[in-house]
Amino acid sequence: MPNQGWIYRDKISKNQAGLSLLAYYTGKYPHSSPEEWLDRILSGAILVNGRPASPDTVLEIGQQLTYQRPPWTEPDVPLFFEVLYEDAEVLVVAKPSGLPVLAGGGFLEHTLIHLVHQHYPDVTPYPIHRLGRGTSGIVLMAKSKPARAKLSQQMREGKITKIYRALVGRGDIPDNFTINQAIGKIAHPILGYIYGANADGLSARSDGRVLKKHPDSTLLAVQIFTGRPHQIRIHLAFFGYPLIGDRLYGLGGLPRPDAVPGDCGYYLHANQIVFNHPSTGKTIPISCQAPPELEILNPV
């Protein structure tokens, strides 16, 4: 069933002024071809300050652009979540692998945030952090702006503990290890840029521990102290042990050009989170059962 469509809004900055309307969309959104953007402009789906414009219209600072995307059928995903903890200010849920947290990449209504809004029509839960589409497990949300501000501050200051389960290949992995590798933007032929191991990026730290060794795989617990995009996927690949089934990040923590972040198939689960309640200050630990592939039977 098609969704309701969406209006994408942009405001022209100083650096973008002087571009033609077609050059702006072609350059900023390379996921569509120049021919596709041309057709949208000519059909009147793209407006400049609320009015149709020609493809060669020269853009000026402060102009408002809108693109009315018609309804489309989104990819099938698991459309459910589990409530792990809830009170007047905080909501903690578990999402399945395959369900995006936020809109993007062809998803609008098939997202965790849309499902939560449907379930809680009188409040607007704010996600304090994100999980990749293929990652399952815990997502912390705030039910009010004050709670959002306090929880976001805890996140920025590293006061929220987040521990994941990850499955990598077999090998001579140390029982305990720390990965300090900066993560930053890298050029990507489809998306324009994507995150990966980059010495010029932002600092990032992940601590890992071996939980169980199988004949053909190794189960890890990974705690992250920073929240860079795709941090665990990038760090473990940089360390020499990419997640099993990860089509995007290979050895070295660099993205493959023929894959995108939304590709699923890897084994990563947000297993535990510990935070201080935004009003009471009470320490709240939450855990979420891992999928069978990431469960511990006989720890090392």
UniProtKB/TrEMBL annotation:
Entry keyword annotation includes DNA repair: no
Presence of keyword Protein biosynthesis: no
Catalytic activity from the UniProt record: a uridine in RNA = a pseudouridine in RNA
MF terms in GO: catalytic activity, acting on RNA; pseudouridine synthase activity; RNA binding
EC primary class: isomerase
Record's keyword terms, sorted: Isomerase, RNA-binding
Annotated EC: 5.4.99.-
CDD domains: PseudoU_synth_RluA_like
PROSITE patterns reported for this sequence: PSI_RLU, S4
Pseudouridine synthase RsuA/RluA-like domain sequence ranges: 90-237
GO BP term, pick one: enzyme-directed rRNA pseudouridine synthesis
Parts forming coiled coils: none
Family statement drawn from the similarity comment of this UniProt entry: Belongs to the pseudouridine synthase RluA family.
Function: Responsible for synthesis of pseudouridine from uracil.
Protein name, UniProt field: Pseudouridine synthase
Annotated source species: Microcystis viridis Mv_BB_P_19951000_S68D
